[in-house]
Structures are given as C-alpha cells and as structure tokens.
Amino acid sequence: MLYLDHAAGGPVRPEVLDAMAPFLLGRYGNPSSVHTVGEDVSAALEDARRRIAAVLGMRAGDVVFTSGGTEANNLAIAGIALGARGRRPGHVITTAIEHSSVLAVCRYLERMHDYDLDILPVDAHGRVRPADIAAAVRVDTAVISIGYANNEIGTVQDLAAVAAAAGGIPLHVDAVQAAGWLPLSGTGAAALSIAGHKLGAPQGIGALAVRGRLPLEPLLHGGGQERGRRAGTQNVAGAVGLAVALELAEHERADAASRATAARRAFTDRVLATIPGSRLTGDAVDRLPGLASFVFVGTSGEAVLLELERRGIVTSSGSACSAGSTDASHVLTAIGLNEDEARTAVRFSFDRSEPPTPAVLADALGAAVAAVRSAA
C-alpha cells in the first residue's frame, strides 16, 4: 500500500517512540508533584518546552502544551480575544479558507460573546490580499488568524505581508500543515499552533506558542498548569515526543522540501499533461512542497479515491476533519469552484522521507479517473 495522506496524519517516528517510552513506563510521576519523582518528570517537560521554543523562535515560557492543533487554535483565538481586557466585545479577522477549528471558534465568539467577525475572501489561488487585512483592521480588533499553508490546496500565505498589514494587531498563525516543511521562526506571529501527528509524534499532542506578554484567557480551568493558561495534568510523554519530532523535522526540512518539491512538480506536470479535464488547485508555485491537489471534470472525487485504493494507493479528497460530510469543501468554493467541481477533488500529500515515483503515481491516477468516467 502507498499511503499519500500525510496531511491528515502519519506514523510515529521510531526516535519519537524511543524518547517517549521512559515516560510511559518508568518515569511516570505527575510533573506538578513536589517529590523527586515529580521533579524529574517536570524537568523533562521543561526541557521539551525549551526545545520546541527554539525551533519556533520564541521563549520557553511562551509554549503551552495542548491536545493538538484544534485546541491550540481555539486557545489562541478565543484566549487572545477574551484576554483583550477593556476591548470586549471586540472584533476578529480571519479568511474563508481556514481550518474548521479556526472558523468554528471565530463564529463561537460572534455567537456567544457578541464579537464582530470579518471573514475575508481569497483569490483564485487561495491567497488573502494584505490590503484586505489592512482595510478590515479596527481599533477594537483583538486578533487576526491566518493559516500559514492551507491543508486542502497547499497554498502558502505571504506572512511577512500579512504581519505588516496587521499593523500591530496580534497575529495568530495556524502552522499545523507548515511545520516540518516551512520555516517557523521569524513569521511575525504573536501566536503559532502546531500538532504532533503531522510531524511524526502521536495524535493527541500539540502546542501553542504565544508571546508571553500577550494576555491569554484559558479555556480549561483548574490547577493552574502551563502557567495558568491551560489547566490539567500535562501529557509529558507526548510533549517529549513532540519536541523530538519537531527537532528532527526541522533538521531534515530543507532536504525533505527539495525532494518533495521535485516529485510534486513532476507528478503535477504529468497529471495535467495526460489526464483530460484535470486542474491543479491552489497556487502553482507558493505551495507546500509535498501537497498536490486536483479537480477532475466529469468525475466524483470519492469514486476516484476508491479506484485508487483498489490500485494500492490511499489518499483523500481534502481535510480529514470534514470526512463524511456531504457538503462541498468550503476551501474550494472560496477559490471560485462551484459545488459540483469541488466534489471532484483529490489531494495527495507526501511523506517527508520518501516521495512517490511521479510517473507511476500519475499513471495510476489517470487509470482511476478513466475508470470512473467510463462507469458514469
């Protein structure tokens, strides 16, 4: 089987498992305990925090461990908005192609806390216009949330221009898809989210790095862990695993991105040249190195996926968080596709270590698309 859905999640790296094992078996103390067993585990947790902060270009005290990217995004947006004392209710800005965890918490603030919400449009490639951000900023804008790279179409935003347009308003960057592929330091973000299962760490661990002087209202209340920003006993094994996975991904990033970019370009060129009615979605150049996404006129994306799986290739039609929904992708309709076109989408996301052979993959895709069309 060839697994090409790494944007949804991938295997845990052996090095990560090795680093986590002691904290699942022998070093099992609670990091909040004041005895020597707890202090030993607490030291490991703080070491993981420092290592993650170094990759993100932030301070160790800025890092808050979470259960994953969804919680990190929720904590960033709601936490910053509700923590903006003296400006509540206020105003939040995001775009029409963000992950559901971003859009849902923004709408929650609008619905339950009377925040005004601006959901900005994007162009046909999925790029937000910095001028639109600058025009939307108000004196009561509490936070702006932008995805570094889109999980469905792979388009990478110009974060330097976005940060400049923000004009000092706290910028939250959802870097869940970008981590391991793109630089994470120097983004201009006041807050940045990552998730372990996109990097070779287990599901259920993530982190939010938020500048220490920025007020952050916790979503979880209790014992005051994570400097009062996220209550609950920490997942020490997960935090250690996340630190190892992030360091490895960052060390390998340049080579992995180069290999994946070459394979993705060759694959894309062959698909567009050999499969009639194929169309690449997202920006052709400014996109994630290992993500290629297409729509195919006259097909069903789900039917193409089934044909590919019969040929030993597993991939997806888009975000795993929307799997099972009958609605057309909000990302694809936001870039101008109609609902029928959006339902023909197929997304390929490569492993960092070994991209697929472009010609073999493109030919298998061509055969799958032809089979679906002939059966229609």
From TrEMBL:
Residues 3-351 form the Aminotransferase class V domain. SUPFAM superfamilies: PLP-dependent transferases. InterPro entries: Aminotrans_V_dom, Cysteine_dSase, PyrdxlP-dep_Trfase, PyrdxlP-dep_Trfase_major, PyrdxlP-dep_Trfase_small. The keyword Metal-binding applies. Its cofactor is pyridoxal 5'-phosphate. One of its GO terms (molecular function) is iron-sulfur cluster binding. It catalyses: (sulfur carrier)-H + L-cysteine = (sulfur carrier)-SH + L-alanine. Pfam families: Aminotran_5 (PF00266). The keyword Metal-binding applies. Keywords: Iron, Iron-sulfur, Metal-binding, Pyridoxal phosphate, Transferase. Belongs to the class-V pyridoxal-phosphate-dependent aminotransferase family. NifS/IscS subfamily. This is Cysteine desulfurase. The lineage of its organism: Bacteria, Bacillati, Actinomycetota, Actinomycetes, Micrococcales.
